[in-house]
Amino acid sequence: MSPRPASFGLSDGPAQDRGFIAKLATMAGQPLHEIGPAGPGFEAAALGFTLALAASWAGAAGVFWAGEDVAFAEEGAPYPVGLAQYGLALDRLIVARAKKREDALWAAEQALAATGAIVICALGAQGKPLDLKASRRLLLFAERYHSRCLLLMPENGPSAAWTRWRIAPAESNALPDELGLPAFRAELTRNRGGPSGSSFILDWNAHERVFAEREVARDLSAAHPDGSADPRWARAI
Known about the structure:
- This protein is of the alpha/beta class.
- Helix content is 27%, strand content 23%.
- A 9-stranded mixed sheet has the order 3-2-4-5-1-6-7-8-9, with helices on both faces.
- The longest helix is centred in the N-terminal third of the chain and has 15 residues, at 43-57.
């Protein structure tokens, strides 16, 4: 692993247990994060969470989305109107589609050389697992140029990422017969800067480009057969 760069704020300190928004502020100063689906069929939720993160962090350098063909085939081709409604600025978004994984990784590395850029590197589930060397290269590029990389892929072994997230869809918080905000169940399964194991239910406000953590004393949709709440998803706040 590379040493911690002095230019990034890498310690959560006492804020570690204050919820997702505190973690998000710390993540913004870390160069590489890995995001994947919590289970089969949750790929769209993982992509949505990744795009929301990118939109919330995007600055003047914009967002670069490099993906291999198989990833776009699994998650669907980007739709400009939908991306704009989701909170992404289309005039600061570049999408590169690569036939091979090596080409997608190379494109992501080149984009990370733009200081301040937010780079999504989307890899599919097919093919051999990504090795540690490849993720470490993304980390080093992001550290060197003070950019950030979101590595979107199924969990497949060692990674140089500072955090690893597993994402599932959450039930809408809207009233009956209303269309609610995009909602996610997010579990932090790895955290180089502090403890892991936290889980959150989040709503994404595309207009404001911000996440809101839902205050849930007990999540009935995640209950065990005996009626007790699953501790991974239910959390008292």
